[in-house]
Task: inverse folding
């Protein structure tokens, strides 16, 4: 079942209308009361891209895998209300124990990147790649992928990767097979492979819609097969944005996420994971200026928290991640009050066999 089918299945569980008319102060007070009354039975992990109205109630703030791992370690928590998107909550369900309930406050909080690689597409693509290259390919999937894709990769000997360890995992993959299929973000795959010294002319793009390779040369030379997927947020940063910042703010350093295009990464001063971006700006000297190529909620938060520096978005008309922003204060309150009434709304449950295979991919990464 894909994400859209899950949303349709849950359509009768949309948030009741009366939550939309509640005042902010009342909602905040009700959330605080429930958190206090539930104590350690409740755990609220929040991704860096969440709105401040939700982040203020976070028990942990971080990247998707980090939050899933923290949730798993927090064995006292019976209810994990995951403020992120669907694939993140799936990973948390895979890693947590059977007694814990993982809840997504709004089932519409998906990820366009994860949805760009579904299971049937991947199976068909893999069959074509086997015909072309034989048993010479190891699949890797970005953590930003569905449980079904993680399971496919796990079943075929591959592993998950994060933006922090993608280089390390790609190096490992090449000790296993001659070629690597990188799902579903072509930009992270391309940037990481290029950093390892693999030339662009040894990278082919697999288009799952046309079921063809985008490549002009001899396919026998290909080392990296990039799935044609991208993050809708990071795709909005362009070389023109970089040029404008260079012109208007020549004293600014430009730091971007590796989900940005190769052209943007190449023109920037720094590129790295969300943690890398936060740490780099945090450790920078007061008075420095930073143009940041990542999601707007995080950029705005960094600007507030690090007021001794000037922090602004690389794209001046950038918006926040629309699907991530489905999780808001009314949905958080609805999820918590439902728990209080003895009802678990929007549970995220990965089918056991799928979870087992997906965990193989996660465990291979965590073992490195």
Result:
């Amino acid at each position: 079942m894909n994400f859209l089918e899950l949303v349709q299945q849950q359509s009768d569980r949309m948030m009741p209308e009366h939550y939309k008319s509640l005042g902010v102060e009342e909602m905040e007070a009700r959330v605080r009361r429930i958190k206090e009354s539930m104590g350690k039975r409740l755990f609220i992990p929040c991704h860096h891209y969440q709105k401040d109205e939700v982040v203020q109630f976070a028990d942990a703030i971080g990247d998707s895998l980090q939050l899933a791992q923290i949730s798993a370690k927090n064995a006292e928590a019976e209810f994990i209300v995951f403020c992120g998107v669907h694939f993140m909550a799936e990973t948390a369900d895979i890693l947590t124990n059977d007694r814990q309930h993982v809840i997504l406050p709004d089932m519409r909080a998906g990820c366009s990147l994860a949805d760009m690689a579904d299971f049937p597409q991947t199976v068909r693509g893999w069959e074509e790649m086997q015909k072309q290259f034989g048993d010479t390919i190891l699949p890797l999937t970005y953590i930003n992928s569905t449980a079904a894709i993680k399971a496919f990769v796990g079943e075929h000997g591959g592993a998950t990767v994060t933006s922090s360890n993608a280089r390390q995992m790609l190096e490992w993959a090449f000790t296993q097979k001659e070629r690597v299929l990188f799902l579903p973000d072509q930009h992270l795959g391309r940037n990481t492979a290029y950093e390892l010294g693999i030339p662009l002319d040894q990278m082919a793009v697999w288009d799952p819609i046309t079921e063809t390779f985008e490549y002009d040369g001899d396919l026998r030379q290909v080392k990296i097969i990039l799935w044609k997927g991208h993050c809708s947020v990071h795709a909005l940063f362009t070389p023109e944005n970089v040029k404008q910042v260079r012109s208007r703010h020549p004293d600014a350093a430009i730091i971007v996420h590796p989900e940005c295009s190769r052209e943007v990464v190449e023109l920037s001063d720094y590129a790295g994971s969300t943690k890398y971006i936060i740490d780099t700006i945090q450790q920078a000297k007061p008075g420095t200026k930073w143009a940041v190529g990542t999601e707007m909620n995080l950029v705005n938060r960094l600007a507030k928290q690090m007021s001794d520096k000037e922090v602004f978005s690389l794209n001046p008309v950038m918006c926040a991640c629309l699907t991530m922003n489905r999780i808001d204060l009314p949905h958080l309150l609805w999820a918590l009050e439902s728990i209080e009434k003895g009802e678990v709304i929007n549970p995220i449950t990965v089918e056991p066999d799928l979870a087992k295979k997906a965990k193989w991919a996660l465990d291979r990464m965590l073992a490195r």
About this structure: The domain at 114-231 is CATH 3.40.50.10800 (Rossmann fold). Residues 6-12 have pLDDT under 50 and may be disordered.
